[in-house]
Amino acid sequence: MKIGIDKIGFYTPHLYVDMNKLAVSRGVEPEKFTIGIGQDRMALAPITQDSVTLAANAALEILDEEDREKIDYVIFGTESGVDNSKSAAVYVHGLLGLNPYARSVEVKQACFGATAAIQMAKGHIALHPESKVLVLGSDIARYGLNTSGESTQGAGAVAMVISKDPRIMVLEEQEVCLTDDIMDFWRPVYSDKAYVDGKFSNEQYILFFQKVWKAYKEKTGLQLKDFEAICYHLPYTKMGLKALRTVLDETTENVQERLKGNYQISTQYNRNVGNIYTGSLYLSLLSLLELNEDLSPGARIGLYSYGSGAVGEFFTGVLEPDYRDHLNTEAHKQLFEGRKEVTVSEYEAIFQEVLPTDGSSVELDITEDPATICLAGIKEHSRQYVNKNR
């Protein structure tokens, strides 16, 4: 049975900061941000958007009535959860009006969460071929103003429908996964910002890639020449390139140029959004599929997922005939074009707007937020979500 990605959607907030201007404000050369880490714009979530609303808005654009009826499993990968008990998936299930006879759960392992969700979805479809699974990867990356990680912040979500006989990409059966208990990036329950050992995390990202790639080659017999492209989890767009460069000497110059060229295409969306943790790998895949018009059906795409702490996985997908007909390229183009740039001072003010943590209620103004699904406030310790289409 063929199982894979039948639909894929994306959402990012309507606000962004220009990285050149942020660099000037922080007293560093703009090239440090635009070339050194490879970021042009950073998406900024207003207080009316959180991981739930971002995911719901991403899913809203791709679901039809058949999907709403057949989806019987919602798996939400995030490290920006809004409740320590109730899953973000349950909120999204209600906001989208999905089949009530469904499982809805949240999974967590840093940036690896959405990949874990996909593997869970594959198992479910194998047992229940007529089912569909909604997989969500949604996060808001926050490190704080004037911190070393500030330039790698971002916000957004990717939604995917996993099913049999997928119309976009079949996920192949062979994969290699690796786990090691390390402290390269983590966020204790008492902190709203992450802790990171940047140099160590970069080293582990590359080491994990080298290990899973080596094991994958031994397991399958496939080589770099067998791949049209490799997409990476992108905490910033230069990170994946650092890993790719460590294995390029395994192949010919022609294959090297193909992989490097497709890598650059796969980073374009991420360059303009920033880090979205669990969704970053799949935003990179979406960028490749929608912006590279030369990809042919049958092309094999490698996928490297990494979640600090740490879990890494290498797996693959093969493009289906007419896959391009099932992408939302124009909608995503309009999403990017419709965003509004904010000044650095406006960004700093918005960043510091936070929800109360003392149990008090608050009502938020959602009239300035163009998103269909928004957070309207907190009442009696309960988040108040609004779907403007209802």
UniProtKB/TrEMBL annotation:
Give UniProt keywords alphabetically: Acyltransferase, Transferase
Hydroxymethylglutaryl-coenzyme A synthase C-terminal domain ranges (all copies): 177-248, 254-352
What is the superkingdom listed in this entry's lineage?
A: Bacteria
Q: Which family does it belong to?
A: Belongs to the thiolase-like superfamily. HMG-CoA synthase family.
Q: Write the protein's name.
A: Hydroxymethylglutaryl-CoA synthase
**Any idea which residues are catalytic in this one?**
E79 (proton donor/acceptor), C111 (acyl-thioester intermediate), H233 (proton donor/acceptor)
Q: What EC designation does it have?
A: 2.3.3.10
Organism this protein belongs to: Oceanobacillus piezotolerans
State one Pfam family annotation: HMG_CoA_synt_N
Q: Which major enzyme category is it?
A: transferase
GO BP:
acetyl-CoA metabolic process
